[in-house]
Amino acid sequence: MNSKLLGRRAYSVPQSDCRIRLDANESPINAMEEYREEIKELVLQTALNRYPQEDNAELRQAFARYAGIPADCVIAGNGSDELIGLLIACAVNNDERLMLIEPDFSMYQLYAETYEKQLVCCRRPVGSRLTPEFLIEQLERERPALLLLSNPASPFADVLSKDEVLCLARAADKTGTLLAVDEAYMDFADQSVLAEVPNIPNLVVLRTFSKAWGLAALRIGFMIAPAALAERLDAFRPPYNIGTLNQKIACLMLNRPEHLQTSVRRIVEQRDQLAAALQEYAKLPGIKKIWPSVTNFIYIEIEEDFPLYEELQKRSILVRHLPGAIRLTVGTAEENAAVLAAMREIGGAYAERN
Ligand SMILES: Cc1ncc(COP(=O)(O)O)c(C=O)c1O
To answer: How many domains does the structure of the chain reveal?
Structure first.
């Protein structure tokens, strides 16, 4: 065993039997309800004794058509997680550095450790928005081989504009940096740089089907890179990395983009209602700040001694617990109402004590 990795603990997801799970930024909409018959037909037609298509060609083509980019710019992965790992493993030499923002999606750091990369973590200015000026300053100082960040940002739910990311890509080009933008939540926002990737040699975008598409069970993600880079990165992808059934269902859904549009509309509607209702809590003693959101989750900064996470869990509601904060996924109208009612009760008890 690699001794540097001995203390490592697995990515932990609380095993919980909570009635309401709003901890993983999944979609509350299950496509199976609408597409049951078509999916059933796909399953019945599948030769289970055969390996999947090795190069994921049909899936890559379907995504490329949907996104309006060439298929040779697309790599398909077993969730975008797999592709994040592949990118970190391959795009940074041992004598080069990987730059991450802190905090950001926790898997970035885990992969950096796994592949023993030299890591530069830039702490995001407390309580404020990430700016291209801040990032460019860090790039010029550290000159990393790769800068990887989520946009919209995890866990804050804000977004750099398309122009800001393009400006960052130009600055990254000057410092010899590959800029990788994880657009896991960009289906909820409208600032994607995906369409620009084929023309910008140092820009890579990651996308997932686990969030707005509501297909987390399939484990489907994409990395979009300029064709020459995509070809080189794809050489490191494990063979047959996506099961045939998953590929087929993902292709079916890509040919039903109206599913995504409807889901996004419904979730954004719920998010806006939830965010408006939460404003009522913004001045309660336990709550420090409720961040505005362009995604399907809301970041709520709380006092260290406010047991919001624990009290929600006692009421069978699971959210994501972060240092000094909770991250709340937007659920169904009923789930959101249950969270609001629970918060009212928990906040009231905390206010009485303080
Ligand atoms: C920013 C970000 N990127 C990537 C992922 C992982 O996506 P996938 O399910 O495609 O592996 C997540 C999941 O929570 C995420 O928040």
So the answer is: 2
User: Is 283 in contact with 350 (CB distance < 8 Å)?
Assistant: no
Angle between helix axes 57-67 and 244-254 (nearest 10 degrees) is 20
Are both 214 and 185 inside the same structural domain? Answer: yes
**What lines the ligand 1 site, CB under 6 Å?**
25, 79-81, 105, 150, 154, 182, 184, 208, 210, 216, 221
* Ligand 1 centroid – CA 328 distance (Å): 15
Same domain, 303 and 217: no
Same domain, 163 and 297: no
Domain boundary among 256, 282, 311: 256
User: Do 92 and 65 share a structural domain?
Assistant: yes
274 and 294 inside one domain: yes
Query: Where in the sequence is the domain holding 243, given as residue range(s)?
Result: 32-256
The pick from 21, 81, 159, 242 for probing ligand 1's pocket by mutation, whose C-beta has the most ligand atoms within 8 angstroms, reads 81
* Residue 24 sits in the same domain as residue 144: no
Q: Relative to the CA of 81, which ligand 1 atom is closest?
A: 11
Q: Where a domain ends, among 189, 221, 256?
A: 256
Nearest to 154 by CA among 242, 81, 263: 81
Which pLDDT tens digit goes with each residue over 7-57? 777 766 776 789 999 999 999 999 999 999 999 999 999 999 999 998 999
Q: pLDDT of 267-300, one tens digit each? A: 999 999 999 999 888 778 899 999 999 999 999 9
- Report the C-alpha gap between 78 and 220 in whole angstroms: 5
pTM of the model: 0.96
> Quick one: 41 and 134 in the same domain?
yes
Which residue owns the Cα nearest ligand 1 atom 3? 184
Distance from Cα 82 to the centre of ligand 1, integer Å:
10
The token pair at 217 is 């069970």
Burial group, residue 339, by CB count within 10 angstroms (0-12, 13-18, 19+):
buried
Q: Write out pLDDT tens, residues 54-99.
A: 899 999 999 999 999 999 999 999 999 999 999 999 999 989 999 9
CB atoms within 10 A of CB 106: 13
